[in-house]
Design a protein that fits this description.
The protein is α/β, with parallel strands linked by helices and 507 residues long. The protein has 18 helices and 21 strands. Strand 20, helix 18 and strand 21 form a beta-alpha-beta unit.
Length: 507
């Protein structure tokens, strides 16, 4: 079926004029509205106003212009049903074979500083989604274009098929429409839900970003959805894997805790060394000294532009991914010599108000993201002795790291570095023992260190083990029925201990 009549009404006018010229050359009559019609006429293209086509004027400040049987009848009547053909003819409804529509930029409008609720509501598109859905439903006969990136392909097919498009293209474009309108409605619901929360359902509609080679293991299929590329740009190396993306996410989340120059090393989403220093090479030395075995095949991240000296140091370590806000040419030249090493430029951290979603049997768990933790500054002193300035700095550092270690989590820290990390044990005292053992393996003294625990010590044994290893200060949430016993154990060892009142489990 040759395309004879098209309706064009777009917010994003990228490529519009060139596309319309192609339609005009193919003899297509063009209907349009408002700014789209004006833009086309300015380029000398012949356009018929929708109001002239429907015989009904635009009204209510443009809220009603395409919501008319002449429009939706022209889109929805089935060309293969004589009864539909007869009804359309009886009411003078002409077929519309091509719809080119993109929507009011609702998400951009609500992202503006100072936008009012009234302004946001005025940017909810009604006519656009209605036309797109009508055309997409009848894609057996109607071509619907919601993305300027598809203009060229539509024109190529029209040229190849005598002014028509193929069923395969129409079906693909229709699916794209319903994906777009689902995401659009989700954005509106999320915005309105900030003021009125129904709690009736949770919908997550995000675009597919990439098909991955496989998931956590080669027998598992996997895909990446969302806007990962808005936050990170790959500069070099092999294609990212499923596990790489998980590790990168963990690294970015951890680094959001630090404003001072910092280097972190992670493995299987767990930090295995973190160091801070004005000299990035010194920060790396502190991080790497924590555990010189675990970083093999791990992730390295810094929150400052990569330096040549740091690049030279880490080039000798087999790493999967290196992340930095920038890679100056000298550093890039060093790291690019490893053809498979993935280099990721951090473009921006995700919104701290984002939500975490995890699959469970029969459904999903959704929670607020555990955003940057600053409660150590206001922690309550529980022991007779207050921490010294160095101990306080060590507690602050350990507290930033421990929330990113799998529970049960223990971190021994100095004022600017990790010294021993114990992760993911079923017993908290075992996590302490592992952290002590790892520090011993690395040849690091825990004398004068601070121990951080992501949740309360259920018994005094974990704290006692930490004190025996050399820790002189502790930071933990508190809240155990045995808090008094734990505090007593700390006082008996002249340890300073503070309670934050907030835990950071990481399952």
């Amino acid at each position: 079926m040759k395309i004879r009549r098209a309706l064009l009404s777009v917010t994003d006018k990228t490529g519009l004029v060139e596309f319309a010229r192609g339609l005009a050359a193919a003899g297509v009559e063009m209907l349009s509205t408002g700014g789209t019609a004006a833009a086309l006429r300015e380029e000398g293209l012949e356009v018929k106003d929708v109001a002239e086509h429907t015989g009904f004027p635009e009204m209510l400040d443009g809220r009603v212009k395409t919501l008319h049987p002449m429009i939706h009848g022209g889109l929805l009547f089935r060309r293969d049903l004589p009864a539909h053909e007869a009804q359309a003819a009886a009411h003078g409804i002409a077929p519309i074979d091509l719809v080119v529509v993109n929507l009011y930029a609702f998400e951009k409008s609500i992202a503006r500083d100072g936008v009012t609720r009234e302004e946001a509501i005025e940017n909810i598109d009604i006519g656009g989604p209605s036309m797109l859905r009508s055309a997409a439903k009848n894609h057996a006969a109607v071509t619907v274009v919601s993305d300027p990136g598809d203009y060229a392909e539509v024109l190529r097919e029209m040229k190849a098929h005598g002014g028509a498009t193929s069923p395969g293209l129409r079906a693909r474009l229709a699916a794209k429409v319903f994906d777009l309108t689902a995401r659009y409605d989700r954005a509106i619901a999320d915005y309105l839900g900030g003021a009125v929360t129904s709690g009736s359902s949770f919908t997550c509609a995000v675009p597919r970003a990439a098909s991955l080679r496989y998931g956590e293991n080669p027998h598992q299929r996997a895909e990446l959805y969302g806007r990962f590329s808005e936050h990170l740009e790959q500069l070099h190396g092999k294609e990212l894997s499923y596990n790489n993306i998980l590790d990168i996410t963990a690294a970015v989340d951890l680094m959001a805790e630090f404003s001072e120059p910092t280097v972190a090393i992670l493995k299987h989403t767990n930090p295995c060394g973190v160091g801070s220093d004005e000299d990035l090479l010194a920060a790396w030395d502190k991080a790497f000294a924590t555990d010189q075995q675990a970083p093999f095949g791990g992730i390295i991240m810094t929150n400052r532009p990569m330096t040549e000296a740091l690049a030279s140091a880490i080039a000798g370590i087999f790493s999967e991914v290196i992340i930095a806000p920038d890679f100056p040419p000298a550093a890039l030249d060093i790291l690019q010599k490893k053809k498979n090493l993935r280099l990721m430029k951090l473009l921006g951290c995700p919104d701290a108000a984002s939500r975490d979603v995890r699959s469970v049997i029969g459904g999903l768990l959704v929670q607020d993201h555990d955003a940057r933790s600053e409660e150590s500054a206001g922690a309550k002193l529980a022991t007779r002795r207050a921490p010294t300035p160095d101990e306080q700095r060590a507690m602050d550092f350990g507290w930033k790291v421990v929330k990113h270690v799998k529970s049960n989590a223990i971190v021994f820290a100095g004022p600017d570095r990790t010294l021993g990390i114990g992760a993911g044990q079923m017993s908290r005292v075992d996590s302490v023992r592992i952290a002590v053992w790892k520090a011993g393996e690395a040849g690091l003294s825990l004398a004068g260190s601070a121990v951080a625990s992501d949740a309360f010590f259920p018994f005094p044994d974990g704290l006692i083990s930490a004190g025996a290893a050399g820790a002189t200060a502790a930071i933990q949430p508190g809240g155990s029925v045995r808090d008094e016993e734990v505090v007593k154990a700390a006082d008996q060892r002249d340890m300073a201990m503070v309670l934050t009142g907030k835990r950071h489990f990481r399952h």
